[in-house]
């Protein structure tokens, strides 16, 4: 039942992980897709090649989305190649595996996290929303985290950016509703991607993570991309300002 035929989607951070799974799934559902990569050029080329097999237009562009000029370039490129932007998935982000106690968390680490995880969401939304307002329709889906809902000790800068995404989405949902634009976020718990690999690679790491998740395992990237696709689809036309939990029960259950 889910079809994105005729839709144009911009997915940030599509070279790996959740973003790459979303590129594949959106293309499979019939959407034309532009995504960005930053450092992973080869991985991006592979995602592009694979996703094109579904028969839709798929293109990638290098962009550091913590920079306004790169965000503008990406949004302009998408509109130029696809003719419009119906869906924005603001997914690109970073996490640092090492603990960062507050007293040794440096200003640079704080600024880098805020720039890549939060400013990037503002930046792409800023340019894409202007186009969506003009066309009087659109869907914006950002990627938050359980860390934004319950915090994350020793990763407070990461949790702060992800919490801010939830309040950004709630404010923007009300602001853009009169323009026919729906704004939501997906809040994943642990997902099996490069980001979590260093923790999940060890038996002790897996054991401690699985113990916090009622379903007893982490999500696949596809299990997060599916709910993103749902929010982007015509099955979700009355949901806005929402944070959709995709966490195996780990926030609600103690
Ligand atoms: P990932 O596998 O590490 O992929 C991150 C993506 O973001 C890559 O495509 C990367 O591009 C891109 N990116 C990084 N820095 C960028 C920058 N400055 N400008 C533009 N793009 C940049 O991560 P993931 O696990 O798929 O995470 C995707 C999103 O889900 C993130 O926002 C993350 O915080 C969130 N999340 C993840 C988990 C988890 O357990 N994995 C849990 C909750 C939330 P390049 O590789 O090309 O540089």
Share of residues in strands: 5-15%
How many domains? 1
- Quaternary form: single chain
Hetero ligands:
NADP nicotinamide-adenine-dinucleotide phosphate
Could you name the ranges where pLDDT drops below 50 across 5 or more consecutive residues?
none
Q: What would the average pLDDT be, to the nearest integer? A: 97
Order of helices and strands: EHEHEHEHEHHEHHHE
Task: Please tell me how large the radius of gyration is.
Answer: 17 Å
Kindly state the percentage of residues in helix. Answer: 40-55%
Number of distinct helices: 9
Rough shape?
Answer: globular
Q: What's the CATH superfamily, by name?
A: NAD(P)-binding Rossmann-like Domain
The CATH topology assignment is Rossmann fold
Give the CA-CA distance, first to last residue.
35 Å
In CATH's first tier, which class applies?
Alpha Beta
Count of individual beta strands: 7
Q: How do the strands line up in the largest sheet?
A: 3-2-1-4-5-6-7
Class derived from helix and strand content = alpha/beta
Main pleated sheet: 7 strands, parallel
CATH architecture descriptor text: 3-Layer(aba) Sandwich
How would you describe this protein?
The model has no long low-confidence stretch (mean pLDDT 97). The chain contains nine helices and seven strands; from the N terminus they run E-H-E-H-E-H-E-H-E-H-H-E-H-H-H-E. It has a single domain, classed as Rossmann fold, CATH 3.40.50. The protein has a seven-stranded parallel sheet with strand order 3-2-1-4-5-6-7, sandwiched between helices. Strand 2, helix 2 and strand 3 form a beta-alpha-beta unit. The chain is an alpha/beta fold and 254 residues long. It binds NADP nicotinamide-adenine-dinucleotide phosphate (NAP). NADP nicotinamide-adenine-dinucleotide phosphate binds next to helix 1, strand 2 and helix 4. The site of NADP nicotinamide-adenine-dinucleotide phosphate has 32 residues, from helix 1, strand 2 and helix 4.
